[in-house]
Amino acid sequence: MCSEPAEATRRLFFALWPDEDARAAIAALAAEQIHRQAKRVTADNLHITLAFPGAVTARVQACLEAASGSLTGAPFELSIDRLGYWPGPRIIWAGSSQTPPELWSLATSLREVMAACGLEPENRPYQVHITLARKATRALTVTRVAPIPWSVRQFCLVESVNEAAGVRYRVLRTWTLEG
Ligand code: 2AM
User: Fold this and answer.
1) 76 belongs to a structural domain
2) What predicted TM-score, i.e. pTM, was given to this entire model?
């Protein structure tokens, strides 16, 4: 019996990619606070996911890119000032005590982009976070930290690539938020 070859897919997500200063400060915060019993995310991989299309074909990727290009969004200032722990996925994360409305708008617009490209809505609720460490067995005692400023001027489409050394995130496209 013959079967169609499975169409190739790439695992994609939309993200905010920190500038070098913010990235270094977030990595330093993680190194300072997370010592044991957790696997820290490498500095190069630190990001905020905006929306998660997951495994998509080249045709869907092209649709996502075209639709993202015509999206309008304003730049905004983000302050990373919180640490948290989710016992289910065993993640230690960093976040913001005040999420700017522009970030919610961008995340919502990208869900509309996904729907327009025929993708199902995500089944996990959106929570703004930067995963700092996985396989964490307990929460940190510190929950408020000195604010790390991050001027958000762009968003990106990123590919998650599995390599022998672990997962690597590759930025495929960047769009400027022009307001
Ligand atoms: P996480 O860090 O909380 O695991 C690449 O895997 C990025 O996509 C990560 O930021 C990851 O979030 C996020 N991600 C993975 N699976 C997801 C899902 N099913 N829904 C939403 N985001 C997901």
Assistant:
1) yes
2) 0.95
